[in-house]
Amino acid sequence: MACAAEHRDQPSATPPPAGNPLTSKLLHFAPLSNSDRQHLDRLAAPEERFPASVDIIAEGMVPRSVFLLKEGMAMRYRNMPDGGRQIMTFLIPGDLCDMHVFLLKEMDHSIGTITPVRVAPISRESLMDLFASRPRISAALWWSSMQEEAMLRERIVSLGRRDARGRVAYLLCELLWRHRAVGLTNGEVFRLPLTQTELGDTLGLTPVHINRVLKEFRQRSLISMDRRMMSLLNVEELQALAGFNKDYLHLGGTSPEVTRYFDGLEANLKR
Amino acid sequence: MACAAEHRDQPSATPPPAGNPLTSKLLHFAPLSNSDRQHLDRLAAPEERFPASVDIIAEGMVPRSVFLLKEGMAMRYRNMPDGGRQIMTFLIPGDLCDMHVFLLKEMDHSIGTITPVRVAPISRESLMDLFASRPRISAALWWSSMQEEAMLRERIVSLGRRDARGRVAYLLCELLWRHRAVGLTNGEVFRLPLTQTELGDTLGLTPVHINRVLKEFRQRSLISMDRRMMSLLNVEELQALAGFNKDYLHLGGTSPEVTRYFDGLEANLKR
DNA sequence: CGCCTACTTGAATTCATTCAAACGCCGTGG
DNA sequence: CCACGGCGTTTGAATGAATTCAAGTAGGCG
């Protein structure tokens, strides 16, 4: 029953569709006016490309602008003195590369591409302008960064308390929901262009062990993989294996109270 | 040479002293006017107490206000279905309990006390007011939350890529610097009221293994412990063991560019 | 004094790593 | 067309770091 739906599906919560993945994601937080959506589209219009396996920004550098990832996959990672590497998070379409820009002197980690990517550079000025003039978008971006923080905490839980199977299962579930939130799933299928080495570097495991876990999952018909497309054949059991609960992604939006507050700000500006 | 300096020492960077630990911390980011400092002192004035080992907020709850921790130690943690527990971060004086309040519907983790604590509750309103009227403080708080995020990423690196010794050493170094930043160290000595079980729940290790690592550190004269006071006798070697580099704490403040920007906002408001 | 919690230590076990080798796929170039 | 590498994956066997189980010690407190 899970194999392949024919159409892209909407995130299960409530959110309308949107061509812009960032818009799709932010709609999980709160509704946005047409004007807000247009603003986001303008923001996403500029385009720059990077090939696979290059750094967009490296540790120690001072980033000059934020990047909105429009297509492809990237990662935040850090190289270890002993030659190892730890991948902290994956960036998928709709994710912003670095809000840190504004406040921190230099990057404490690197951002590198996994596949070729298309990004929209966003200057400091236009972001500041956005903060000043679009309270609802600003709030949604803030929410989005809270969500990212929550994902970091969950990763800590994974690495600290789950065994290899649980870690892999958890990551797969998280990526499924994240892709759903930006409209990039097809049933339980999504693009996963990661090597087993990269999975290992993410989950604190060796590539060979990742291999064994994936093999087991395939044999138990929990997943199937074909030319970088990952299908979760039994999400129920994967979630159970991982102790996964999607609440931490906060896809349900915010409270009416908060919405009202930002509507108030919005109204204020109009005058 | 490391055992016990006679006075509280200042964080090595540049920051002036301050009775208020939050102020001390924020001064690492940028200078604050007397008026700003007074504002922070007013915020920190209200007082509420919690005993040790209770939840200030539990997973699933909707927090009603932010808490500024003034004294004692607390933790963000999450209980696992199998009875286990993962501690995500420790909260020390100067830390704010939950900025998430405003945007997320409910807590995805709990905050519990470790020791008895004194906190200053801060209402949503006074925080919103602060954001509107105190750009420099707001920026500093934002910086502080970037710092927290960086610490989460570092924890991921620890759990993913460091062995037990490295993890313990890393945590000790981090806590030393964090305590320094709020003026709560005495040379290389600081209060560490954690049980070995709590350390284990933080670092993804069993208490017995924590015990063995600490024993080794004591035997190698890297640390000494006495009635909950932790002395790092050989910070150099601990940092080497952990591959520790304090840059991720961003204690060096921000760029002049950013400072100028917020000074501009400040000036704007004055009119 | 007795109890509870935290700490300590030893021995057996296990999950994941390390080392090693082979396989398949794919693009390049002879 | 096939040979050649390179990279990612797959599999086996030996090793090892940390866990589990178990039992004993030490310290704080009613």
UniProtKB/TrEMBL annotation, chains A, B:
Keywords: DNA-binding, Transcription, Transcription regulation. It holds the Pfam family HTH_Crp_2. The keyword Transcription applies. Residues 1-24 are annotated as: Disordered. Coiled coil: none annotated. Residues 1-10 have a biased composition (Basic and acidic residues). Residues 162-236 form the HTH crp-type domain. InterPro entries: cNMP-bd_dom, cNMP-bd_dom_sf, Env_Response_Regulators, HTH_CRP, RmlC-like_jellyroll, WH-like_DNA-bd_sf, WH_DNA-bd_sf. This is Crp/Fnr family transcriptional regulator.
